[in-house]
Design brief:
alpha/beta; Oxidized Rhodanese, domain 1; 5-stranded parallel β-sheet; about 100 residues; single chain; globular
Length: about 100
C-alpha cells in the first residue's frame, strides 16, 4: 500500500506541492480538528461521491488513525485512481509528530 508519513506530507505542504487531501472522518471529528483545504467525504459516502475527485490527481486520504483511510485508498485504487496515498497513522500521528498544538481525541 502506498503511504505517506506526516513529515513527508508536511514537507510537501511547506513546499506548496500539496496533493488533494481527502478527510474520510465523521462530521463530529472534523469539528475537532482537520487539515486546511481538505475535501470532506465521510467514509460511508465515498462510493457515491467519487465523481468529486479526479483520478489523475495525487490524493492523500486521511482519518483519525489511518485505518479507515487505508480502506478508502484501496477502494479508490481499485476504481482506477492511480496516485492515492494513505496518511500513515492518520491525523493523530500528524498531531503527535508535526503539529503538537492540534487538538487530539
Amino acid at each position: 500500500m502506498d503511504e505517506i508519513t506526516p513529515q513527508e506530507l508536511k514537507a510537501r505542504i511547506d513546499a506548496q506541492n500539496v496533493p488533494v487531501l481527502v478527510d474520510v472522518r465523521q462530521d463530529w471529528e472534523t469539528k475537532l480538528c482537520r487539515l486546511p483545504n481538505a475535501v470532506h467525504i465521510p467514509i460511508e459516502e465515498v462510493e457515491f461521491r467519487t465523481d468529486e475527485l479526479n483520478p489523475d490527481d495525487e490524493i492523500v486520504v486521511y482519518c483519525h488513525q489511518g485505518v479507515r483511510s487505508a480502506a478508502v485508498a484501496h477502494y479508490l485504487r481499485g476504481l482506477g485512481f492511480r496516485n492515492v496515498k494513505n496518511l500513515m497513522g492518520g491525523l493523530d500521528s500528524w498531531a503527535r509528530t508535526v503539529d503538537p498544538g492540534m487538538r487530539r481525541y
